[in-house]
Task: structure prediction
Amino acid sequence: MTAQVARFERTGPPREVVRVETVEIGPPGPGQVVVAMEAAPINPADLNYISGTYGVRPQLPAVPGLEGCGRVVEAGPGVKLAVGDRVRLPEGEGTWRSHAVVEAGGCLPLPGELAAEQAAMIYVNPLTAWRMLHDFADLKPGDWVVQNAANSGVGRCVVQLAKARGLRTLNLVRRAELIPELLAMGADRVEIDGLELPRKWQESWGDRPPKLGLNAVGGDSALRVAGLLGRAGTLVTYGAMSKQALKVPNGLLIFNDLRLRGFWLTAWAKTSGMETVAGALREVAPLAASGALQVPVAATYGLEAISEALAHAEQEARGGKILLRLGGAG
Result:
C-alpha cells in the first residue's frame, strides 16, 4: 500500500522544510493496525514543532501533526480495535499523512458520531480548555473566568465550555471586529486588550471576583488578566503569543496572594494516562455532538496543497482553524 506523508528533514520555516512524499507501508503485524487518516488541523504548536521551538524536539526526519482522526481499515493479530473504529494516532506519530501503520495499544478512541472535521480537532484545544476550567479553581455556576486571546482556538472553547457549565467569561481580544462573534458564541463580556478596563466590570461581579485567569499571551496582557482576579485567584499560563516574559508586581503576590500555574496538555496526558484522557474526551464529546462546542474552520486543504495550507495557518486573522483533508478514508 502507498501513503502520502508530509515530512521535514530539518527544522525551520514550515513552508520551506515540509514536503509531501509517497511511501510504501506494509501490512499490520501483531498488535498493529492500519489507520486511514481523515483530517488533521494545523495548530500553532505544529508550526512551533516544525520550527524547532516547541517543548519537544523532533527526531528527524519527522512527520508533523499533533492531532487528527482516522479510521482503522486493517488490524493485525491480537488487536482489540475493530475495522471502522475512529482513533487518534499514538503520541508522537505525526498525523499529516493519508495512512499509517501504528501500535494499536497507543491509539486513543475518538467519538465516531462526530463529523470528521470536529473529531480531528477535539483533542488539543477542547481538552486544554476543559482541563483548565476543571483543574485549577473550584468554580461554581455564576463564577467569572477572565482570559486573553479569547479568539484563539482554546479561547473559543473556553467560552463555549464555560457557558455549558453556567460560568461567566470576561474575554480580552485585540480587534474590535471579533467582539460580535464571541458574544454570539456565548461570551458574557468582550473587551479590547490593551485598553484600561472600565471599573464597571470589576464592580459587576461584586463579592464574586474571578477566581481563574487564563493567559496565552504573556507580557502586559497577562498582567492585565492577573489584576482582575480576586484574592487567592489563579493565573494559568498555557501560551506565550507575545513572546514576552510574565513580570508580576510583588504586590499581587503579597497582598492578593496570586497563584501562578502553567498547563501543557502533552505533559498532562502523559502523567494522567490514556484512561483519564479517554474519560475527558467522553465528557467533551456530547457537547461537540450537540453543537454546544464547535471549533470553527477557516479553510480546508488537501495534503498536496501543504505549502498553501501552511501559509494560511501562519496568518494572524484567520477566523478559525486551517484543516487538512488527508484522503485516507475516502
